[in-house]
Design a protein that fits this description.
With 266 residues, this protein is α/β, with parallel strands linked by helices. The protein has 2 domains: 164 residues, NAD(P)-binding Rossmann-like Domain (Rossmann fold, 3-Layer(aba) Sandwich), CATH 3.40.50; 92 residues, Orthogonal Bundle (ProC C-terminal domain-like fold). Strands 3-2-1-4-5-6-7-8 form an 8-stranded mixed beta sheet, with helices on both faces. The structure holds NADP nicotinamide-adenine-dinucleotide phosphate (NAP). The site of NADP nicotinamide-adenine-dinucleotide phosphate has 25 residues, from helix 1 and helix 3. It is found in: Cytoplasm. Pathway: Amino-acid biosynthesis; L-proline biosynthesis; L-proline from L-glutamate 5-semialdehyde: step 1/1. Pfam families: F420_oxidored, P5CR_dimer. InterPro entries: 6-PGluconate_DH-like_C_sf, NAD(P)-bd_dom_sf, P5C_Rdtase_cat_N, P5CR_dimer, Pyrroline-COOH_reductase.
Length: 266
Amino acid sequence: MSQIIFYGCGNISQTIIKGLILDGCTKTNILYIDRNPLNKKKLSRYGIKSADESKLSTTKNLIILAVKPKDALAACKEISTVISAPQLISLVAGIKIKSLKKSFSSKASIVRAMPTTASTYKKGITAIYGEQNSEKLILNTKKLFSRVGISILLKEEEEMNNFTGLIGSGPAYFFYLLKIYNEHLLNLCDGKQRDVDAIIINFLEGISSSISDGIDLNEAIDLIASKKGTTEAGINSLKDNNVLQLFEKGIISAMKRSKEISDEYK
Ligand SMILES: NC(=O)c1ccc[n+]([C@@H]2O[C@H](COP(=O)([O-])OP(=O)(O)OC[C@H]3O[C@@H](n4cnc5c(N)ncnc54)[C@H](OP(=O)(O)O)[C@@H]3O)[C@@H](O)[C@H]2O)c1
């Protein structure tokens, strides 16, 4: 039976592993290679075993490359000493297939995937891109990430940069905004973080339910805002201070950074 080997098993790999286990994936089908003792400790707590390098040579095994961009090309070289034509899914931000392929033979199949951390709860959003000759691996990548959320296939590799800035980094922007709510709600809830968490959860689930209902975003705002009311004052102040444009600027900076990484690691 084929196995999934996470090469680099830090934050994102562990979120995917948790999601796969939640989806019923057998733990023995998941293996990892990682040099960080702290990650090794965590993974042994989940009952996930490390792979010895020979496992990489089994051509039907899927290798998921999930190291930081600065480590990715060296990791490919290490993998290539064991297998010259792997089935490899790279989660690495920015680095292009063309650059990853340099370490391997022309028979290697490499696909890029950009998942989100909500994969842990099977609420991930994963963008997938592969070249025309990698159809089988693209299909297997889609199958794999559909187990931990939804996935979208991108037509151009360049689109990975925009997806990374918009959705890959996206949850962090919302967590960042929620810090303001957290701070003010703590004052209202006598410093009780549990009560604040319950409020934030309902707040966000309420917003998701409205979207599930198919509400138009402007309509949703109009439903809350009344003439000369508090919401109108809040929204007007946000508009006067160009908050939307500033937020968009942040997202565009992340998209640009993803493109810069492509240029840094060729
Ligand atoms: N975090 C996210 O939300 C997210 C989402 C989508 C994509 N990604 C991408 O996924 C990649 C990994 O991100 P991450 O946040 O999971 O990083 P991370 O937590 O640092 O995990 C990477 C792990 O790989 C290990 N490693 C690096 N090179 C290795 C090698 N040659 N052999 C064995 N182990 C090696 C690292 O060890 P050391 O700690 O000793 O270096 C670390 O334990 C990045 O390229 C990122 O762009 C991340």
